[in-house]
Write a structure and sequence with these properties.
The complex is a heterodimer. By secondary structure, chain A is of the alpha/beta class. Chain A contains 16 helices and 11 strands. Chain A has a domain of 313 residues: Amidase signature (AS) enzymes. In chain A, α2 runs antiparallel to α3, α7 packs antiparallel against α16 and α10 crosses α12. Chain A is globular, with a radius of gyration of 21 Å. The relative contact order of chain A is 0.14. Helices cover 38% and strands 18% of the residues of chain B. Chain B has 3 domains: 274 residues, no CATH class; 124 residues, no CATH class; 57 residues, Arc Repressor Mutant, subunit A, CATH 1.10.10. In chain B, the strands form 4 sheets. In chain B, strands 1, 2, 6, 7, 10, 11, 12, 13 and 14 form a 9-stranded mixed beta sheet that branches. Chain B has 15 helices and 16 strands. The N and C termini of chain B lie far apart (61 Å). By secondary structure, chain B is of the alpha+beta class. The chains are: A alpha/beta, B alpha+beta.
């Protein structure tokens, strides 16, 4: 018999409704799995008491016929979302001891709909990273291993804890955030599904900011349908975030079964980057064939400014980050390291509180906004951003419904293998995902097969603004055709 | 900047005359119930940190949301400054570290302010008037307050002001003397108060000025300027300009050069001191705030706000002059405060207060003299605000009516005013009950005159040779009638009886 924590979110929902098991049993199955998987370091903080209390409420609601859409479904929360009365660190020492007196809009929406919080998930510090190795609280170990090897692999990042927890059955689904690929890349590395919705689909209120114009919350789950269910609860208008769209949330789950008949899928030639592995190329071709077989038309398109996206991103995102992270000054909350005067206190606090990658991005951001460099860097990067956006608009205007690309340039790599010498090696992880954030579009990563070493690979679908429904429909076609990735057995337990 | 040089405004140096050039940045606190980007209260005088929202304290994940009332107030002010209203403006972040700046940046408007170029007409004491150009007005957040006197080793922070909306109103360097600068700030404050967009209370810090001062020989290009930060009274603005201009002149005449810097004015020592040099100036790393969309509205929005504006000082002055025949001086006194002219017009038009429909039944100029000299004079003497005045416009109006109807003389009217001021009451009743009415009965006056002539034959004789002695007879007659005799009748009778032409 399947363990309860190995059900999909949709299956668990239906089982609860049918009375096959209780929310408390479902939560307990997760709590013991989490306990057994502490070696993966996916959870920064487990909240079992709260989980059982919420499960108790859920069981009562189910019994009285008042079940809400996510009643009793246990989730993990990326530790970038502020949770009322529960420590929130953003993966950084500088927020050590910080307990918010408020609940982020996204998690509030999930609890409103009856979901259960299992705990807070590890991440790259302030969501800056692609391997979860920049977390101040240790690396997350992927549940995946190369065939015949016990080398520890990264789960990707920055939502590494979220992806690893979902892949290792430590939650039914998890919240995540994506600024340059932080949902889609770890989803691809762990054989899970992750969607970054359109910028403005989810409120940013109460989520620790990295780069405000790019940050967007979304779910990671084990199936396309589960992602659709979760996003339906996470999304929605919020007057507290003026960049959040005042639009109704569609029935995403209903879109999953729509199919792709009659849709035109674009294949952008510029994504055929130099040195792309044959495996990735083959996966991409396979994905296109799956969509074609399901009735879509495949067409090559051009997104000519693609190659400028990565450098432009590494100007815009650090610029915003350098300003967003100025509030961590030791004055009001979190870490404070005394100094001889106020400037000394700032310097000591920030020197001790931030890790290397965060400091690097603050310095890059400070530099590109400085007098004399602003026009050369920030202003030009914004112009590139406009051009990238226009590339997509033109493609969609020409009749393209969604765009298919690889999600990552490779499968997961080993902990410590990349980026220790040259940070750009790590930055290149986001080469396929970053354009989507720059243009504010929705993008979904869906598993499409394994590489030669038995590691999962993902494909990405990019949609029109606020058309996540087409992405769910197309991703479901790939999930069905490729078959759901068989997640690894619990070697860690 | 190229206006003709007025020699009267030049400052005498040791070697020659100098022209001082002044531009101002006024920080005016927007009148609004809540802050620029949060719902926290703006009320003055609360306990430290009582009015602080999660946004004001820059808690992680908090986002600013624009307060629409502050936008409306900025547009109203722009209209009051006859300025261009920008239908699209952008909020930028001005980045620097300070404990009273929780976000680590101030949200301000740098490249695209909400209000563009405008102007302010300023009347000076000598009757001259100047037009001061407004370069821009933008919205920004105020900072909190660092408290250094609460603990021997630590500083505390009060964030009540953090995030309160300010309008920064930037003038062109159009001012040429400390007097002009003071008059400009006074006029600007009057306009803001008329509009109801800033209370202008400098003691509470609702209005602060950064003053840019430079000097040059008349006709030369602009000199290097120094910025005097945060001057918080109109008197200090004048003093700061005087001492700073003289400091710069002394340096230049000694063969030195002025270095561009930020300075502070110390009123106790009457000097300005260097705060930071140009080299030490912050690099604020301005960039558009990604948490806020550009601020956009249409002309219909501006038109609706324009329709709701009150009559502004310049228009009111013109109307007082044309409608009531006031001179420029009297009109200026009346418009200095909206309440002044309101009081005056209520005196003029009677108790119904319908300022626009009822024709004046009281003499406008006499009323103006009474309001300015007697009423405002008495307020000043007693140190009272208009709102604390014990005399209502209706009471003053009644006194003026009694005067106009010849029931009382001017002298008695002043006595009556004193009585009403200190005791209150209906002036007409008081005149009746205390028999203060003027004696217009010629027979009664004639009896008094005859008696005085009879008693003073020598003076009568002298008066025929020296007609100015008439005044003595008038005085005696007034004394004999208890001051109530109609002075015109007394005069006429005496002249006839004494044979003076």
């Amino acid at each position: 018999m399947t363990h309860l924590n190995e059900l999909t979110l949709a299956e668990a929902r239906d089982g609860l409704k049918a009375g096959d098991f209780s929310a408390t049993e479902l939560v307990k199955a997760h709590l013991s799995a989490i306990e057994a998987a502490r070696g993966l370091n996916a959870y920064l903080l487990e909240t079992p008491e709260r989980a059982l209390q919420m499960a108790g409420v859920a069981d009562a609601k189910i019994a009285s016929g008042e079940a809400r859409p996510l009643e009793g479904l246990p989730l993990g929360v990326k530790d970038l979302f502020c949770t009322h009365g529960v420590a929130t660190t953003a993966g950084s020492k500088i927020l050590e001891g910080f307990q918010p007196h408020y609940e982020s809009a996204v998690t509030h929406n999930l609890w409103r709909d009856g979901a259960v919080m299992l705990g807070k998930l590890n991440l790259d510090e302030f969501a800056m990273g692609s391997s979860n190795e920049t977390s101040a609280y240790g690396d997350v170990v992927s549940p995946w291993r190369r065939a015949g090897s016990d080398t520890k692999l990264v789960p990707g990042g920055s939502s590494g804890g979220s992806a690893a927890a979902v892949a290792a059955h430590l939650c039914l689904g998890a919240t995540a955030t994506d600024t340059g690929g932080s949902i889609r890349q770890p989803a691809a590395f762990t054989g899970t599904v992750g969607i970054k919705p359109t910028y403005g689909r989810c409120s940013r209120w109460g989520t620790v900011a990295y780069a405000s114009s790019l940050d967007q919350a979304g779910p990671i789950a084990r199936t396309v349908r589960d992602c659709a269910i979760l996003l339906g609860s996470m999304a929605g208008a919020d007057s507290r975030d003026t960049t959040c769209a005042d639009l109704p949330v569609p029935d995403f789950e209903a879109a999953v079964a729509r199919g792709v008949k009659g849709l035109t899928i674009g294949i952008p030639k510029e994504y055929r980057v130099e040195g792309m592995s044959a495996e990735i190329q083959a996966l991409w071709d396979k994905g296109a064939a799956m969509l074609k077989d399901a009735g879509a038309t495949i067409r090559e398109i051009s997104l000519p400014h693609t190659r400028y996206a990565l450098p432009a991103y590494y100007i815009v995102a650090p610029a915003e980050a350098s300003s967003n992270l100025a509030r961590y000054d030791g004055v009001r909350y979190g870490l404070r390291v005394p100094g001889k005067d106020i400037a000394g206190m700032y310097e000591n606090t920030r020197a001790a509180g931030f890790g290397r990658e965060v400091k690097r991005r603050i310095m890059i951001g400070t530099y590109v906004l400085s007098a004399g460099y602003y026009d050369a860097y920030y202003v030009r990067a914004q112009k590139i951003r406009t051009l990238i956006k226009r590339d997509f608009e033109e493609a969609y205007a020409s009749g393209i419904d969604a765009i298919l690309t690889p999600a990552t340039p490779s499968a997961a790599f080993g902990i410590g293998e990349k980026g220790s010498g040259d940070p750009v090696e790590m930055y290149l992880q986001d080469v396929f995902t970053i354009t989507v954030n720059m243009a504010g579009l929705p993008g979904i990563s869906v598993p499409a097969g394994l590489d030669a070493q038995g590691l999962p690979l993902g494909l990405q679908l990019i949609g029109r603004p606020f058309d996540e429904e087409t992405l769910f429909a197309a991703a479901q076609v790939i999930e069905t055709a490729a078959g759901r990735t068989k997640l690894p057995a619990a070697w860690w337990a | 900047m190229t206006a003709p040089v007025n020699p009267k405004k030049l400052i005498k140096g040791g070697l020659h005359d100098w022209e001082v050039v002044i531009g101002m940045e006024i920080h005016a606190q927007v009148t609004s119930r809540s802050k620029l980007f949060s719902g926290a209260s703006t009320e003055f005088g609360a306990e430290p940190n009582d009015h602080v929202s999660l946004v004001d304290a820059a808690m992680p994940g908090m986002l600013p949301v624009i307060n629409e009332e502050c936008v409306a107030q900025a547009v109203r002010t722009g209209l009051g400054l006859k300025a261009r209203i920008n239908h699209r403006s952008v909020f930028d972040r001005k980045n620097y570290f300070y404990p009273d700046l929780p976000q680590g940046y101030q949200i301000s408007q740098f490249k695209d302010p909400i209000v563009g170029e405008g102007e302010v007409l300023v009347d000076l004491a000598d009757g001259e008037s100047i037009t001061v150009g407004i370069e821009r007005l933008h919205l920004e957040q105020d900072a909190g307050k660092s408290l250094h006197d609460q603990n021997p080793t630590q500083s505390f922070v009060d964030l009540n002001r953090s995030g309160v909306a300010l309008m920064e109103i930037v003038s062109r360097p159009d001012l040429r003397s400390s007097e002009e600068a003071r008059a400009y700030v006074t006029k600007l404050r009057t306009i803001l108060r008329y509009l109801g967009t800033c209370d202008g209370d400098m003691e509470k810090g609702s209005l602060r000025a950064d003053v840019n001062v430079s000097v040059r020989k008349p006709g030369d290009p602009l000199g290097t300027r120094c910025e005097i930060k945060n001057v918080n009274s109109i008197r200090f603005i004048g003093q700061a300009i005087e001492v700073e201009a003289r400091r710069q002149i002394a340096i230049i005449e000694d063969g030195g050069t002025i270095s561009q810097e930020t300075r502070l004015f110390d009123p106790a020592r009457a000097e300005t001191r260097s705060m930071r040099s140009k080299e030490e100036a912050h690099d604020y790393r301005y960039f558009p705030d990604p948490d806020l969309l550009p601020l956009e509205f249409d002309q219909a929005y501006v038109d609706a706000l324009a329709e709701g504006l009150p009559e502004l000082p310049d228009a009111k002055k013109a109307r007082l002059m044309s409608e009531y025949g006031l001179d420029s001086y009297s009109a200026n006194v009346m418009i200095a405060d909206r309440a002044f002219s309101d009081f005056y017009e209520r005196v003029l038009k009677g108790p119904d207060g319908k300022l626009t429909t009822v024709a004046p039944k009281r003499d406008a100029k006499i009323a103006a003299n009474w309001v300015i000299n007697e009423f405002f004079g008495r307020l000043n003497k007693d140190g009272l605000d208009l709102s604390q005045a014990p005399v209502e416009p209706e009471q003053l109006g009644a006194i003026l009516d009694l005067l106009g109807e010849n029931v009382i003389s001017g002298k008695i009217a002043k006595e009556l005013f004193d009585i009403v001021w200190s005791e209150g009451g209906d002036p007409r009743e008081i005149v009746k009950s205390r028999s203060m009415n003027q004696v217009n009965d010629t027979d009664a006056i004639e009896a008094a005159v005859d008696e005085i002539i009879a008693k003073n034959p020598d003076k009568v004789q002298q008066a025929k040779e020296k007609p100015t002695l008439l005044g003595w007879f008038v005085g005696q007659t007034m004394k004999a009638t208890g001051g109530k005799a109609n002075p015109a009748a007394v005069n006429a009778l005496l002249k006839a009886k004494l044979g003076i032409e």
